[in-house]
Amino acid sequence: MAPLKNLETEYPIIDSNFQNFCASHGIFSVEDFLIHDLYMLAAFAEQNVSSERLKEGITQILSIIDDMHQPWLNGMELLEDAKRNKHFLPTGIQGVDLLLGGGIRVGQLTELVGPSASGKTQVCLQTASNVARNYMMLYLDTGNSFSPQRIAYFLGKTNELASAQAKNQILQKVMSNILCHSVFDIFAMFDVLHQLESNLRCQERGGGCRIRLLIVDSISLLIAPVLGGTSTRGRALMASAGYLLKKLAHQHNLAVLVINHTVGSEGGTSKPALGDSWKSIPHSRLLLSCDRGSNVYNVSILKHPSMCLAVSTLRYLSRALFCIYLCPFYIRLLGRLQGLLFRTCPYRFAGDEKNIEKMELFHE
Amino acid sequence: MGSKAWLVEDESAREMLDRVLTERPFLLLPPLHRVPLRVGNIVEIVGPSPSAKTHILIQAAITCILPRQWKGVNYGGLGHLAMFLDLDCRFDISRFSDLLNHRIMEAANGSSSEVDCQIKESEAQNATTKPYNEELFASCMRRFLYIRCYDSSEFLATLKTLHYRLQKERETHGVNVHVLLIDSIGAFHWIDRGSSSFSLEGDTRKSLHLQSVTETVVQEIRKLLLVHPMLVMATKAAVLGNRYSMNDSKRNYRTWSAKDNLHSRNVTSSDQQVPYREYMPAVWQSLITHRILVRTTDADFVNGEHQNVSTYLSEWLLPPLNSVDKFIVRDVRKHSCFAVFKKKNQISTLSFSCI
């Protein structure tokens, strides 16, 4: 925040007399004005010999403060911005896209929660491979889980009919559109995000900003180590990270997808690693889980800004079922029941229709 | 002569009541309908996330921006401006516009509570009444003013300049801002607490930490309400002390309050009575005139046809009414709305009855 003495060149009204007056009330910067009663200050200025000039100075400071907040918008302006910029980015997983009404939202922070091997990274990689066909994206990798082979595999599967040359072209394009960064602590993430913010600001001035997706896989691995104990600083870092992500998402029209793993809690059940104080940060929260026996994967909405759901961890109002097997993956939409449902079959069972029918019966 | 004229011109109690009721109407908005709310009140909506807190704010804003009557149709709104300070930065305008559209359609079709049998009907009418509603929709949306704040200094800067903004909006629209909505007040709590450790040069200088920020926020709102009477509604995310994390929260509570008392003494001593962990400084508590607790129910919801239904409980803590209301947020296609209100477990008779 600007110290008052640095403002003097720009605003001659903030002269040394004004600065001394402010200093006598413990004000040295514009930020200090924020926590002082300006009416009281004006009353003190009244008693001063050069009261007119001091009051002019206070008015000047007030107009500087007026530039410090985000612009006021009315509903129509907001709606216009939303219609122009805040569309859906399809994840490429049909069940998830149906569930979310088209995909993850640009301008919002979407969180995936789930125990290990519940398909979190799978959803991220698949979203990355789908979005990177058209846009640039940034993948922040905290646990070395980014795998170009898996992305290449998805691309191969979704373009099975294309010629080898076309396939190669798509692969080249997608791979060059994915920027992957390894970060191993929260401060490194702040560095990368601030760098990204300034890059995006420059690019937007040039008009050529094409980054549309930011994935943090997984944010809980960065935040969990700084939490704990009675220290409030860890929570402050967590909240700041959340605000930075939301600010990036809104101002630069990014969709942000973060992963939160689960930890065991007292009752023997599992709970999200980033718990109650993180809960109010993301826009939507999706819970992934896997039924080991049938290899059916569930995705449930725990929280969504446009779907009003009150769900405990035991029952889900809307859900999509899908199966993910470890590589190779093969995804097939079979039909929908009750909520939204889709399953994938393992590659080796691709032709085995009987097996698929059995699964369907099981769910009906 | 001047003073006499002033006395003669004075109104009767009945006229005054009529004037006050039109100029400063009550906001009887379910699920806050048990206590009539009016300008000057500061309501805090406490609840865990998610518990339809933002939804209540949105409905309050919609009631405020809808006109009372428009082209012969009664919309039951106030026709004033609504301001929304988004500190959580999670506001979704498309949901807001969906809900507004839904309210307009509902009123236009003269339906009151039977929402879902008429939803198909209203869809059919949608095509014919579209331009008619579009104009109303746009004028309502323009009465909704929105700002987002990413940190406390932006929030304070907004509050410091709100007086001028309110004057400007009154000039352009010709009506007052009736409600000021804050979602949610504790959003920067951890960041501000974290920054309290960086105290700089000398004792005279206040730093931007929790206590001084909250004090300034309270002071600014108080001063603002003197000149611009508004109904202030703020949500507060709270962690309920529930069964499985009881030990955990107790332990945390003790350490936190001990720490608080050391440097700022900002947690009230009557904490034990409230069913959630209080974290806002006492100066904020003293500002609040009304407080309602909302939470999700543990009871099973009716399955089958009511699949897109969420049930919540609301309970007034200030004034303390010994009754728990159940309210339902129904997801009608994309529209969610308050639909059914059941009285449950009403213990005392209400002293604050609605007119």
Question: Characteristics of this structure?
Answer:
heterodimer, A: 364 residues, alpha/beta, Rossmann fold, ten-stranded mixed sheet, 15 helices, 19% strand, elongated, B: 355 residues, nine-stranded mixed sheet, two-stranded antiparallel sheet, 41% helix, globular, P-loop_NTPase (chain B)
List the helices and strands and how they pair.
The complex is a heterodimer of chains A (364) and B (355).
Chain A: H1 4-7, H2 16-23, H3 30-34, H4 38-47, H5 51-66, E1 73-74, H6 75-85, E2 88-89, H7 94-99, E3 104-105, E4 109-114, H8 120-131, E5 136-141, H9 148-158, H10 164-177, E6 178-182, H11 186-206, E7 211-217, H12 219-223, H13 233-251, E8 255-264, E9 270-272, H14 276-279, E10 284-291, E11 296-303, E12 319-322, E13 331-332, E14 340-341, E15 343-344, H15 353-363
Parallel strand pairs in A: 4-8, 4-10, 5-6, 5-7, 7-8, 12-14
Antiparallel strand pairs in A: 2-3, 8-9, 10-11, 11-12, 13-15
Helix pairs in contact in A: 4-5, 8-9, 9-10, 11-13
Chain B: H1 2-8, H2 13-23, E1 42-47, H3 53-65, E2 69-70, E3 73-74, E4 81-86, H4 93-108, H5 115-128, H6 130-142, E5 144-148, H7 152-173, E6 177-183, H8 189-194, H9 210-227, E7 231-237, H10 246-263, H11 282-287, E8 290-296, E9 309-318, E10 324-332, E11 335-344
Parallel strand pairs in B: 1-7, 1-8, 4-5, 4-6, 6-7
Antiparallel strand pairs in B: 2-3, 8-9, 9-10, 10-11
Helix pairs in contact in B: 4-6, 7-9
Subcellular location (chain A): Nucleus
GO cellular component, one term (chain A): Rad51B-Rad51C-Rad51D-XRCC2 complex
GO molecular function (chain A): ATP binding; ATP-dependent DNA damage sensor activity; four-way junction DNA binding; single-stranded DNA binding
